[in-house]
């Protein structure tokens, strides 16, 4: 994400509403603490830093997911970043059950270009984005296809988390590519040849006959 926002890492900002105190620690988590003397006052995690929300080439929010369990799902929080005179947690709500919304004000996002995604990418990923733009312009892909390519670029950059199925697919692809390069095959062949030679030498030392053809067999 935007490098200038990392200066917020390691800091926490609180907001008290009614009997609850909310605490937002950028790039870490969001917590909620009930301000009461009840013996079973609630205190828990509303989300752990997970990924960015991106729209129109802009970082529009931070998703904190996998918080404490809430009925059949985990609590999660979206943090909206807005321009403000100082760093402060300004507003908290719960638009839907166990999904929270936080508004965080900071002067770090006041510049019009402060939350642009493109400048944070590597040159290689910027080229991929440029190519996607050209394909869309030439009408070789649909708007949906363009969004899919952007999502893949953001996942590769680590701005978005790939789905579990995609991670498994990526691992399988990695395994299948292991022997696809000539260099890798040559290396493995050389290693196997050396092991075969050692075996033959060992058999000869013990007076054991062997036949080295495709129907290879060993006999005493």
Q: Identify the CATH architecture of the largest domain.
A: Distorted Sandwich
Number of domains: 3
Biggest sheet, strands in spatial order? 1-2-3-4-5-8-10-9
Q: How many E-type strands?
A: 12
Task: Calculate the mean pLDDT score and round it.
Answer: 83
**CATH homologous superfamily classification of the largest domain:** Mannose-6-phosphate receptor binding domain
Shape: extended
List low-confidence stretches: 173-179, 213-220
CATH topology tier name of the largest domain: Cation-dependent Mannose-6-phosphate Receptor, Chain A
Give the helix tally.
4
Main location: Golgi
GO molecular function: transferase activity
Organism: Grus americana (Whooping crane)
Domain MRH: 10-112
Can you walk through the features of this model?
By secondary structure, the chain is an alpha+beta fold. It is built from four helices and twelve strands. The chain folds into three domains: 3-106, Mannose-6-phosphate receptor binding domain (Cation-dependent Mannose-6-phosphate Receptor, Chain A, Distorted Sandwich), CATH 2.70.130; 121-161, no CATH class; 170-202. The strands form three sheets. Strands 1-2-3-4-5-8-10-9 form an eight-stranded mixed beta sheet, with no helix packed on it. The chain has a two-stranded antiparallel ribbon with strand order 6-7. A two-stranded antiparallel ribbon has the order 11-12. Helix 1 (123-137) packs antiparallel against helix 2. It is extended, with a radius of gyration of 28 Å. Mean pLDDT is 83; it is low at 173-179 and 213-220.
